[in-house]
Write a structure and sequence with these properties.
The structure is a homohexamer. The first copy, chain A, is α+β, with helices and mostly antiparallel strands. Chain A contains twelve helices and seven strands.
Chain lengths: 333, 333, 333, 333, 333, 333
């Protein structure tokens, strides 16, 4: 029985396959009996799961965040959301010890990730830093990209709101940077090097803010300092390491990084005071919001012309227009 | 003596040339003598001017908004701003009646206008509506563009804040639309027709909000109703006239027009609930703010690394980075 | 067994009567069994109802929003709120097909509506337009009232917050208009025609914003455009149809309609810039808030001197003063 | 030469008459010479006045706030506002000592005051308290009205924003109370006694907040405690003095007084939690804003369809509609 | 079996002891059977409790807020929070009537209270008023302290947010006052008498705002008038009773009381306009927030470096640093 | 003629002494003649000065910010503020070249500075770091203090709002730190080392934000990055240089520095999430506000019980209470 993607499951489906444990919590039901409340994930998303007392007796676990588990379950609906009623669960490790056949176990399937080829995106950004941004900013960006290559390839763009998955930061950075290239053609008087260095590095601090990309959580420095200043300091340190020769240019790049949230209420200690900083701020915000809209539209399988209310976006979204979207590419363009 | 552009005047210059009267007000000085306070303009901007009692005796006028006048004056500085101390002033009409030689009078020079070829911009938008936006939206945009051709060619984009000059609306619309074309390549899942119709038409209501393009002022409907709803109604009426066949598509375009200010605080009665509306909102806001920044940087001739505080932008701007901008195009791109 | 009003039901009551289905949703309980979650209504309000798996087997439905149904049920309390535990349910249509006696079925009883005589209210407004508002505003109001007579007689005043029932718009409009008549006696310098036309027409757009009055929902144009501009455009179109002769007067009426929410944050694209617009804004807001207060006080059957917190009003309300209200009219006044 | 009202003066007028000194300040001009900057008032308003060094030599004063002065002056325009260029000035007292004929001196003309008969308004409120509000609230209101009769007859309604003149509080209170009587006919379920006691007493604290009615200024308690709580305490003390028998009723009246600013941002320590309190809050706010609008429209003598920006109202106002106002009462109503 | 403190209970514990009923509500479960939902408290806190239908049959009650009850129960976990599954419950009164041995019943244990010796704190404040604050403020403070001695000894500092227990007001007042003594050493130019009178009296109105200290609830005057003005009026009345000789000094103390919430949004009708008022405002706010932080940290027994989100504080808190706190006093200081 | 302090000058005084040029700007008067607008300072404050055209001819300068100048002038009042009408001005340097007697020239008098002994304050902080803060925080603070000793001794605490003078940062830091020592006695459960390290270092970034302490101005990094993050990075770099052994402790100190503005609106990228951070935030804010109040009270020499409106504090201040302040220390305390 091949893996069924979580995003494809519907009420009544029976599943017998592997999942990633994204959250795990022990609880007690009204009658005082313990049960297990899990969030199980694969590359397509996540779903709540319950392991009731009776099942728990046979499958005691323990099960912890990050475990890969084999599961038999039924898809049910509870309060209007789907969840898995688990009949059997065990860790891959334990199953292996029990000598079970793990032929269909494919760790690649279990972790939600960007649909893009992460290595290719990273190479594209690297290429841009090498040939599309002039010294001294180009070499600075290149140095940073290579120093944090491993983290860049896996880090999510956010804990929850947008691109919250493996490679999400890379995908977001790549979109914002490509958009900036397009915008620079419209506004050629802007400093191209600054804008591109700004977009590539604007969210670098996410690497220190978020840990454990497959099931992301915020680090202590992420909580107490925030990615805006963490990223700024990483770039500043890299520039010092390179004896960056143009302090006036550097401070403008630093300004872009610190002001990229656009207003102080949103956590930037300074507001954009250059056109380059304003552009990076807008393109970052736009990509995040478009992605949040897409995610919310996809997650809303209900009827009606409008989605449920989205708290982060502070609005509901119109769904009716999806069918009206361009069914075929326009041959004239 | 050839025309000296207002933007090139400096303290101590003597001028003998023609201007457009952009504002005119009679006042009395502390000793009870009347004088005239004017704003004189040419294509490069505007400057305050004073006609003192003594001069006024010889040049009684009257002078009204919109008059073309011949002027002899001295450029002085008052409270840190340049102004013209007028020694002689008369209307072109009166000068003509007096049989003066008006050889150097060139009305083209007197009115501030977009530096772009307005006819060319309009044709470009028309072309896009005709071949780049599919029916039924394409023909609707085309109809509106042609119906309001005359107004579109002259209307400013705003009373004061950005592009406040002849053809400013066209320039702003053209920038936002070209930017949208670039953005659609990054976000191809958006409905291209809606986005492009939205950018071309988003500020259409300015045509009814602002009157007298050479010296723009707000109309009564502009004041009491606002350009957001005025433009929406113009498009809705045009669609009715064309028996627009797809109400679902039309309401999405209408939504873009009504929501393009992004939030209710900024005068949109609804917030963007589609990705297309969000994109138009961002690109409009970005172009206006970048233009305001450019205008403010240009108008600040003082020393120091930062401009004076700009109220509309609620910040001062960094000037020091201008020299760091790209001196030559990058041959690699 | 005569119809028991929902507002009179209490825990433990048994009911055997007819209801309107205001909402219907299929769900699954914790053990994976389907059940039906309904909102059943009559003229006095609405109550949640559950049709559990076992009952559903006998009464499979389907049941959809708008259906009239016969029901046997028990009134129970769940999380402090009353709900109906359904033992039998079938549509009136099916019952008729089964040859059941529908003697006690009275559709009039099932739908929540204004307690006032709708026809009489409408006639009163019509009369005012005809004899109390001078031309050209009077005939304009009259035309609009008659064109939308059918919708005006049924439309609610809001989806949820105030007067959310059949004829709610009419009731609200009638209160605001009568209050305006009283206010004009205090402030006679205000333009009486404008104020009265403004109050009668201020919420006209609700007719296009809300559909299905017995179980109201927001339409797509209601969501994407909003009733403020929809109503404005309806009046503007009507005025064009009448060749309204006084554009200055018309734009003031339009201004009242667009600004009646008082501030931009509340969805008016412009703020009131005339005294007439300010008065309409205040009387509209006051009637809505007084009604919300009355509704909240009535719905709070609990003990204690204060109601629960009301989100829309952002406060709790004092209940203790109700007994202190004037029990009999004061003979001296 | 009869008294010319300040509101009727225009540029170029010569005046020779009496004024009230509303403000007086000694200043030095740029060349180091002293001059006097005054605000001179009469019953129609106030105007700035300058007594230059040269004049001051002959008319040394001193001139203090509250003085009645005889003045010869020229009306001039300075920075777009009218002011008096004083040629002669002396106090009425000094003129009397000099044996001048003061035949045209009429103190009644000098002080800005409500156009209504203050005694009549007070009697009307008194009458209402006596016969229109039932015990125990009626006698409480009556007691307060009589205890503060002298102050009520002269106190302004505000320092600057609305009704800032002799009897302004009375006029404002009378309007709000009459409006409340009209509103109670529309909303008869509200507690009439509470509403009327609330409107009559809502601004009572102004009596302690403002001193010196002819040229009002804020007292120290007015500054440090504010009229909202001062008025509340005055009523509470009066009720204690009367052994007010119904504490539940009293606390509701107290609540109306404390919450009448409507929100905490506007200085009410609590928000309205009864319908009676909400109504008083709305009618108070409405009367103040309508009056501010009227005052601003009257004070704007300039051309154009819109007034200058009014800071307190945070908007400009439409003037064009004034001509459209009802020229004759409608005989049908 | 000795009393187990609620704060020490964990899942699975069996309890057989006495509690205070802090809240009591009758409910019905899904199957229509009644049960009882209680909040049971002791001096260490409170816990939810359920008395299911079967148990209720044997122990019918009634049970009301404020009752002392004997209970047998099991500690269970429900939705991640502990609750008591009650097997037997009866009031102490009924148990006494039944002749039960109440040897272990100790009312002192049942009510949550400040850990400090209340009598000692009160004496310390009294001492300060007597010898540390000069006349006339000292005697005023002394009079108020003694007049409200009983209430001061029991009143909580708030309904819910900080120090919500017996003697909480006293503890909070004592902390703020001691802090003020320390601050005055740093800022000796502030008026010491005013500051100390201000801190001791700043929350006096809580005595009238909150009733029933063991299970606090807000009174009607507390709701409709608020503690800020109630406390101010109590002090004002006391000063009148003493013929307070210095009105200028008194109005400054009154200002401190009215402005101690710091801004109008937070319910002060005036903002602090003296340094003394500012200091009291800061020290009050600081003590409340530090206490809320401590309470939230203590209540969060979960894993992880950060607490759950605290709504009142609008943030989560860092827990990881607790271990790093100073284990032993520093001998050098 | 000995130096007269600026704070002691009054209208009509003649001065012949030395000043520091704090600002210098060339302007043109209405008739087109150039004049010089200066701000001249000494240790007691600053005053505007004008050098009119006629004087300028004899004293052409140039005069630049930072120059020490000898001046003869008259104190005049202009628009209610005092200013110097300069009759002679020359730089000390030029006067020296001219062989003038500079006997009364004392540079110490010219620069506004903290009234405290800066060296002593610094030593006190140093001492505290050495013996009052335990390792590893103590040595970190010590290192930073010594590395930036020169800057710490001169840097102002702010550009304009509070302590805007030589040594202002040191004075502010010393007050906040001493207050923290006092507060720790009240709240001993807080981590003493963290609090004290936090107060000493909280505004360290001012050293890079502000340049030219005698006439402070904001640097480019100060403008584009801000002192909050600049200071954080300085401490972080110092800790790295010391191989700071406890990363958990360090991140808490860093959190205090980044969060010390209390809210994001005020430029902190994170809000205080520990009690230590909250305390530092409050004590910093309190000292700044108390100082601003003291400065504003001192600068207001006018009559009346209240100062003019202070924009930074958004209020006026009560002056009347000053006389009521404690005239003699209370012997009992």
């Amino acid at each position: 029985m091949p893996h069924q993607l979580i995003s494809d499951l519907k009420e009544g489906d029976a599943v017998q396959q592997y999942f990633l444990v994204r959250q795990a919590e022990s609880r007690t039901d009204k009658t005082g009996k313990p049960y297990l409340s899990l969030a199980l994930g694969d590359k397509s998303g996540a779903m709540a799961a319950k392991v009731w007392n009776k099942v728990l007796a046979k499958c005691p676990g323990p099960f912890a965040q990050g475990d890969h588990v084999g599961v038999q379950a039924q898809v049910e609906s509870y309060n209007g959301e789907l969840q898995l009623n688990v009949r059997y669960i065990n860790t891959v490790e334990a199953l292996r010890d029990l000598g079970r056949d793990l032929q269909e176990y494919d760790p690649e399937l279990l972790c939600q990730a960007t649909p893009y080829d992460r290595e290719a995106l990273w190479q594209e950004l690297r290429q841009l830093a090498e040939t599309g941004i002039r010294p001294p900013l180009g070499p600075l960006v290149l140095t940073v990209l290579e120093r944090y290559r491993e983290e860049f390839l896996v880090c999510p763009a956010a804990l929850r709101y947008h691109h919250p998955y493996l490679g999400g930061l890379l995908e977001h950075t790549w979109f914002v940077t490509r958009h900036a290239l397009a915008s620079l053609a419209i506004y050629p008087e802007l400093n191209r090097d600054l804008v591109l260095a700004g977009t590539i590095l604007h969210d670098l601090g996410k690497i220190k803010e978020l840990a454990n990309p497959p099931a992301p959580e915020r680090t202590v420095p992420g909580h107490l300092l925030g990615h805006v200043v963490l990223g700024w300091e990483m770039v500043r340190a890299a520039a010092q390491g390179l004896d960056f020769p143009d302090p006036t240019l550097l401070v403008q790049l630093e300004h872009i990084l610190l002001s990229h949230h656009g207003t102080m209420e949103f956590g930037s200690p300074v507001v954009p005071k250059t056109r380059e900083a304003l552009l990076v701020n807008f393109l970052d915000d736009l990509d995040a919001k478009l992605k949040m809209m897409s995610q919310h539209l996809e997650s809303d399988a209900g009827e009606g012309d409008f989605t449920s209310y989205n708290r982060a976006l502070q609005r509901d979204l119109y769904k009716g227009g999806l069918a009206a979207a361009d069914p075929e590419p326009d041959p004239d363009q």
